[in-house]
Amino acid sequence: MAKANPKAQWGTILTRANHAEKYLRWFVEFCPVPIAMFDRDMNYILVSQPWVKMLGIPRLKLIGTNLYDSLPRAIAHKNGLERCLSGGQMHYAGEIEIMTRGESAHNFQWNVQTWYGDDGSAGGIIIASQALTDPLSSSLKQQLEEEIEERRYLEDAFTKIGTAIESANDAICITDETGKPIYINLAFSDLFAYDLSALQEEQNFACLFADIETSQIIHKAVMRGGNWSSELHMRDRHRQDVPMALRVNPVKNPSGQVIGTTYVCTNISDRQVAEAEINKSFAALGATLEATADGILVLDECRNITICNQKFVELWRIPDRIFTSHNDTQILEYVTQRITSSKYLHNFGKELSGDQNSFEVVELDDGRTLECYSQPQHVLDGRAGRVWSLRDITERLAAEALVRASEEKYRLQAEKLEYALQELKSTQSQLIQAEKMSGLGQLVAGIAHEINNPVNFIYGNLSYADTYTADLLNLVEAYRVNYPTPVEPVQSKLQEIDIDFLAQDFTKLIGSIRLGAERIHKIVLSLNKFSRSDEAGAKYVDIHEGIDSTLMILQSRIKSTPSRPEILIKRDYGDLPEVECYAGQLNQVFMNLLTNAIDALESDAEHNGLWQMVNDKPQWTRKDGKVSTILIRTEILNEQPQGDRLVVKIADNGSGIPENIRNRLFDLFFTTKPVGKGTGLGLSIAYQIVTENHGGKLSFRSEVGIGTEFTIEIPLKQSQN
Questions:
Q1: Using a CB cutoff of 8 Å and minimum separation of 24, what contacts does 367-374 make?
Q2: Least confident among 182-186, 289-293, 402-406
Q3: Which of 602, 617, 691, 606 is nearest to 652 (CA)?
């Protein structure tokens, strides 16, 4: 089925319109039926010759005058006529009596039709008058209706075509056969700054072309019946160049003769700017692709190469004969043959889904290694292929291997240095411990020896002092019994010294001296037991004696002072046999743990309590009512096959140890105490004494706000080396 030619249809309509307008003029002039055309004010615009004859009034006298002036009886039809003008109805019919030529009256049938302007509003009415006695009235009436329908069709066609042309974005101009413009649309006027009259003054369309010859060539080619289209520069009324896409088509009459041309102009300024930006972007993209260190390959959905940079060619060492052949299949086959190991690249990701990325290390037949990454390419929400990015990492892998070898070498050296440092620290701590224990033992032993001699002298003579005192007091009492009335000087002296009180108090004084001497004697024994300076190697000892002697030495820190309350010591001793151990070292462990517990309790008391006067007596008070307490518990732990083990637990109810420092508590030189108050050796040395020297365990558990408990666990008998 042949497709309709819109150009031919337009030519037919234009020709019909020209003929219709001419015939309509003739129809109005020569129509045998009286017809008159009126504006909205009912003034004559156009009349036919029969209308003039019907009224007997010349045409020139009718044009511009009012209907009701020439036909006063028409006032009877005023309402119907006005309804047509207002749009209330399209047609109106009625009978009227008219004095023809002012002589005789005849009845006529009026058929009223509204006519409309270009803007669609009612411009006025057309009245066709027909004598009711005329035998040709029915045929004339039919003819009139056909002509009216024909005109309505033409007007409707012109309205639709005009609306379409005026609403078009393209600039449209229609010329006659000489090239003179006869119509331009609004877009044409806006684009070139011409109205139709101004453009017609230029005589032809050539004024819009930068080159007149081009205009003439186009006009001649189209007038011969051909079509012309191209892109060129045209000029507006201000002589400014405008880039244009121009299409020129002939206008033909029904016989096929070219009677004009139609110019359709599209402003492509924005398109050219956009194309320039796109070209700039493509140039930047191309430069980027060529400058990148990676080989880039882009395949479409059909696995055709759309982008391939020079680095990709160099990476795969593709021969010129293959690459310049532009045979995508041959290029990809060459790439595939070079691959010895890959997961996705060897078949270019056929098993990958449309939204899946990939990363792999690809090995080539020449020993090189490539790092390959791919991702899907999407265009307008649709998958358009896959992008592959490849990089040669052979040298990087070799460098990384060297770095790893160097790192391993330095790691081993660092481990040796770390081990040597730990050994050095351990040796240092042992030396410090040995020196400390040696000095402390000598000092304690010396003090104990120096105190012991005078104490023994005093304690040894107390028995004689008791005997002598008793004898003297008995003698005095005998004198008082046998000589009840002494001389005056003796009587005065007895009253002065209050012999009765002196006799009683002197006996108590001797008892107090004995208690003090015994107390000093116990302290000396505790010092000797703590230092064990007279013992060498592991010995069987009473652990409870070591703990008690340590508490005796720390007695001054346990008692209350103006800055802290008394610390309550609770003993929960189990039934222990004598334990084989290094007593002096183990006493040092007890000393360190008890000292830390006392420090923790002092700090907790300092932050949470104070001295207050209660019933005129100073008393330490705390809001929480806590009493600073150290609990010492001993027991035997039965373990098989390790054998029985001694367990000593020293717990305080201080503030506890924070979580963030618990794993460093036994580190050498680590301390939480201020500078000058802690060396960081106590717990480290204690841990070493228990674990290394006694083959035991030293552990702790702590809860912030509740307290801390240290547990010493050693075998009852030391293994023989």
A1: 367/394, 368/392, 368/394, 369/393, 369/394, 369/397, 370/315, 372/342, 372/344, 372/345, 374/344, 374/345, 374/349
A2: 289-293
A3: 602
Please give the C-alpha separations between residue 591 and each of 67, 398, 424, 585, 605, in angstroms, as whole numbers: 137, 59, 25, 10, 21
d(CA 594, CA 481): 61
To which H or E segment does residue 514 belong? Answer: helix 499-531
Distance in angstroms (rounded) separating the CA atoms of residues 589 and 685:
8
The Cα–Cα gap between 52 and 59 comes to: 6
Nearest to 551 by CA among 519, 603, 601, 598: 598
> In 3D, which of 504, 575, 502 has the Cα closest to residue 544?
575
Would you say the C-alpha torsion 256, 258, 262, 268 has a positive or negative sign?
positive
User: Phi, psi (5° rounding) for residue 520?
Assistant: -65, -40
Q: Beta strands 369-379 and 258-267: pairing type?
A: unpaired
Contact 144, 152 (CB under 8 A): no
The dihedral formed by the CA atoms of 662, 668, 674 and 676, expressed in degrees to the nearest 10? 160
Widest CA span in the chain = 204
Helix (H, G, I), strand (E, B) or coil at 665: coil
Residue 84 near residue 127 (C-beta atoms within 8 A): no
Alpha-carbon distance of 47 to 57, in angstroms, equals 11
For residue 419, give the 3-state DSSP assignment.
helix
Cα torsion for 606, 608, 610, 612, to the nearest 10°?
Answer: -170
pLDDT in tens, 116-163: 776 667 788 888 888 775 544 556 566 667 766 766 666 666 667 767
pLDDT at 335: 87
The C-alpha angle 525, 527, 532, rounded to 5 degrees, equals: 95
Specify which residues 38 forms β-bridges with: 44, 125
Instruction: Please classify residue 705 by burial: count the beta carbons closer than 10 Å to its beta carbon, then call 0-12 exposed, 13-18 middle and 19+ buried.
Output: exposed
Q: Residue 447 — pLDDT band, cuts 50, 70, 90?
A: low
Indicate the burial class of 661 (C-beta count within 10 angstroms; 0-12, 13-18, 19 or more): exposed
Answer whether 632's CB lies under 8 Å from 611's CB.
no
* Burial class (CB within 10 angstroms; exposed 0-12, middle 13-18, buried 19+) of 526: buried
Q: Give me 483's structure tokens.
A: 């000589």
d(CA 446, CA 453): 11
DSSP helix/strand/coil, 704: coil
Q: Exposed (0-12), middle (13-18) or buried (19+): which is 666, by Cβ within 10 Å?
A: middle
Q: What is the pTM of this model?
A: 0.36
Asked if the bond preceding 641 is cis, omega within 30° of 0, the reply is yes
CB-CB contact of 197 with 180 (8 Å): no
Instruction: Tell whether the model's pLDDT for residue 547 goes beyond 70.
Output: yes
Q: Which residues pair with 112 in a beta bridge?
A: 92, 127
3-state SS, one letter per residue, for 194-248: CCHHHHHHCCCHHHHECCHHHHHHHHHHHHCCCCEEEEEEEECCCCCEEEEEEEE
DSSP annotation of 319 reads -
Strands (E), 487-616: 539-541, 568-572, 579-581, 609-614
Amino acid at 78: K
Q: What does DSSP say about strands 339-341 and 241-252: parallel, antiparallel, or unpaired?
A: unpaired
Residue 531 confidence (pLDDT) above 50: yes
Report the phi/psi class of residue 120: left, alpha or beta, with left for phi > 0 and alpha for psi in -120 to 50: left
End-to-end CA distance of the chain: give it in Å, rounded. Answer: 116
Whether residue 72 contacts residue 66, with contact meaning beta carbons closer than 8 Å, is answered with no
H or E, element range at 385: strand 382-392
SS3 of residue 404 by DSSP: helix
Query: Cα–Cα–Cα angle for 398, 403, 409, nearest 5°?
Result: 130
Dist. CA 652–CA 388, nearest whole Å: 68
